Amino acid sequence: MQNPLRVVLTGGPCAGKSKALPEITEWLKTQGRHPVVIPEAATLVFGAAGRPDYSNKPRLIDFQKTIIMVQKQMEELFLNTLCLPNSVLIADRGLLDNKTFVYPEDWQHLLQVLNLNENQIGLSRYDAVIHLVTAADGAPAHYKLEGFRNETPEKAIRQDKRLRAVYAGHPIHKIIDNSTNFEGKMLRLKAAFTKILNRFPLEPVPTIEF
Questions:
Q1: Is the dihedral of CA 24, 25, 26, 30 positive or negative?
Q2: Would 207 be classed as within a structural domain?
Q3: Which CATH number fits the domain that encloses residue 172?
Q4: Residue 130's beta-bridge partner residues?
Q5: Per the domain annotation, does 10 fall within a domain?
Q6: Phi and psi torsions of 154, nearest 5°
Q7: Does 95 have pLDDT greater than 60?
Q8: Half-sphere exposure for 19 (CA within 13 Å, toward CB)
Q9: Domains contained in the chain, number
């Protein structure tokens, strides 16, 4: 087992990640865990420089390269400096998410220039992947364009399916759909976390006497 437990929380646009994360982090504390959340790198990069011009391919690749580098460095920094015994490191999107936003040949180029191995940054980097399905697929009345989100419902569904596909080979890959209301979705998210936590039980923490 890796210590800390590393979990990707991913999903298509308007899937509920931002709303779910505060509740999940508080809930994890009640389970004896120390949650550490890695913010979404794309949001940080877009907040700093805006969205790229999608007709300018070199600029788009530079943005994607920056997102990957920022995300990778945050993950490693948080892992090495902020985690305690029994921590759960939650990545708001994993490194492999980035594969879904570029053409296959551009993804291979990015792996090469950044000296990355797809398996090492995806299937073997994280202990579990939890995917929240976009509201566009199953709850279209709740799909909203907010912040940097500009995808049509149809595009959101295509993106969601690509995200599911890139993590399909992960041994612990949980899909949380929109078959219930959002409260029910949260309950199923916690149930998915519970199953993952049960596979990685709490480790004894040494008692320090003063």
A1: positive
A2: no
A3: 3.40.50.300
A4: 9, 174
A5: yes
A6: -65, -45
A7: yes
A8: 14
A9: 1
**pTM confidence score:** 0.92
Residue 34 lies in a domain: yes
Phi-psi region of 96 (alpha: psi -120 to 50; beta: other; left: phi over 0): alpha
Q: Is the peptide bond before 171 cis (omega within 30 degrees of 0)?
A: no
The pairs formed by 25-30 with CB atoms below 8 angstroms and a separation of 24 or more are 25/90, 27/190, 27/193, 28/88, 28/193
CA distance 198 to 201: 5
The single residue listed with the structure tokens 């008692």 is 207
Residue 179 lies in a domain: yes
- 3-class DSSP state for residue 134? coil
Tell me if 131 sits within 8 A of 163, measured CB to CB.
yes
Residue 11 has which token pair? Answer: 């999903």
Across 68-94, average pLDDT:
96
Quick one: pLDDT at residue 1? 39
- Residue 97 belongs to what domain range? 5-199
Rg (CA), the chain: 17
